[in-house]
Amino acid sequence: MNNDFYIGYLSKAPPSLAKWLKRIVSAAMLSGLAVGALLIFDQAPFADSKFEYGVYREYSGVIEEWPYPMLRTADTAFLLVEPGKHGFSGASGLQGQTVRLQGALIKRGPDHMLEVLPASLREISARSNTPPISLITLGRVRLRGEIVDSKCYLGVMNPGNGKVHRDCAVRCISGGAPPAFVARDAAGETEVLLLVGSDGRALNREVLSFVAEPLEISGELVRSGSNLIVKAEPAYFRRYAE
């Protein structure tokens, strides 16, 4: 009788067959671990960003309505959004007014945003003595990069850009989250610019077909406080092959 013949109802496989099976299983496990390690080390590092999910702190400052709702404090300008995939709808008519609100911090590098609890907004004074932010025109520019939704890109999702994030970004921008243009230079350095139309209007559905695409845009670059803004017309956006 051949002792290497395997019978399924026996409790053990023949010794020679068991030895080969152990070698095959061990090799497969080691190969899997090696492939997993290679995939991990091949991933791009996460951005230096954060989202204080569910942690709502109190903030006070002056409301700015353009280019997108923001709260301006003594040292920071916070873009404002609401929970979920929604822009902030509570700033209308509050330009220049001092308010108090509760928000969860979203932050990436020098860029700040608050996810505001809408019911927490309280008006402190009808008009602030703080002068409005002056716009500084920096000239015409031609930029390459991609359109992202600012809420996810600044910290709610990581990564918050690229093809893998396209569907989420489209929904966020559709819901009113400010679109941003992440411009990249030849060295790979990036700059986040708020994106508006050439006439300064807010852009939402007009840019949805361009989200997460490699784009070249031309427009006027302006600075409003700590924010860089590019005024560009979607009709002239140009896709390019990377």
In terms of DSSP E residues, the strand content is: 35-45%
Q: How many beta-strand elements?
A: 14
CATH topology of the largest domain: OB fold (Dihydrolipoamide Acetyltransferase, E2P)
The CATH architecture classification of the largest domain is Beta Barrel
What structural category do the secondary elements indicate?
A: alpha+beta
User: What is the arithmetic mean of pLDDT?
Assistant: 88
| Radius of gyration based on Cα positions | 26 Å
End-to-end gap: 66 Å
Question: Helix fraction?
Answer: 10-25%
Q: What's the total helix number?
A: 3
Domain module count: 2
H/E topology pattern: HEEEEEEEEEHHEEEEE
> Spans of 5+ residues with little confidence (pLDDT < 50)?
none
Largest sheet: 5 strands, mixed, barrel
